[in-house]
């Protein structure tokens, strides 16, 4: 079972995202909304919407809108991350999509002066968020870093050690 906190972390870990009253937007376009009662509304169309409806029997189409609604209790963390990301891809501008797509293939130690010891998920998450140097890391709080998908407490500790 996932929570609104996990939804918030998944959405805010993507580049260019802002949250207003439980709605997550990128460049002003809403891609996910946390709903009262513990559900998420995702801006998904086409095959993505069909897959959600097929894979999650409790999911429903939102009438009159290109969206689907799924109870958070019916999604595990990986599924939530995947569908939030797919909704983001459907609304984000091309330059942000290109940046995060490029970040998905980077290897530890290949991004600026970020240490390889933080691992692949943290390296890719940081790069996708536009954090490509220890100076970028130093300008962020631990909470901001932990909000990025793939960055956990161990990676934050290693980054803080590297920034001195």
The neighbouring-strand order within the major sheet is 1-2-3-4-6-5
CATH third-tier fold name of the largest domain: Aspartate Aminotransferase, domain 1
Task: Spell out the helices and strands N to C.
Answer: HEEEEHEEHHHHHH
The fraction of residues assigned to DSSP E strands is: 15-25%
Distance between the termini: 38 Å
Largest sheet: 6 strands, antiparallel
Second rung of CATH, namely the architecture of the largest domain: Alpha-Beta Complex
Number of strands: 6
Estimate the mean pLDDT confidence.
Answer: 91
Helix and strand content put the structural class at alpha+beta
Supply the CATH class of the largest domain: Alpha Beta
Number of domains: 2
- Number of helical stretches of at least 4 residues: 8
Q: What's the layout of helices and strands?
A:
Elements: H1 4-12, E1 17-20, E2 23-26, E3 29-35, E4 39-42, H2 46-55, E5 60-61, E6 68-71, H3 77-91, H4 94-103, H5 120-128, H6 134-138, H7 142-146, H8 153-163
Antiparallel strand pairs: 1-2, 2-3, 3-4, 4-6, 5-6
Helix pairs in contact: 1-3, 4-5
Protein name: Helix-hairpin-helix domain-containing protein
Organism: Isoptericola chiayiensis
């Amino acid at each position: 079972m996932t929570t609104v906190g996990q939804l918030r972390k998944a959405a805010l870990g993507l580049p260019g995202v802002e949250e207003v009253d439980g709605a997550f937007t990128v460049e002003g376009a809403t891609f996910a909304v946390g709903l009262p009662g513990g559900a998420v509304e995702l801006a998904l169309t086409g095959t993505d919407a069909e897959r959600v409806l097929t894979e999650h029997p409790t999911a429903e189409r939102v009438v009159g809108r290109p969206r689907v609604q799924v109870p958070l209790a019916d999604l595990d963390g990986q599924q939530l991350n995947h569908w939030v990301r797919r909704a983001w891809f459907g609304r984000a501008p091309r330059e942000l999509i290109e940046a995060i797509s490029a970040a998905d293939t980077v290897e530890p130690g290949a991004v600026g002066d970020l240490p390889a010891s933080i691992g692949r998920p943290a390296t890719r998450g940081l790069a996708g968020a536009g954090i490509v140097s220890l100076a970028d890391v130093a300008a962020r709080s631990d909470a901001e870093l932990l909000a990025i998908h793939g960055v956990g407490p161990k990676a934050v500790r290693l980054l803080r050690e590297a920034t001195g």
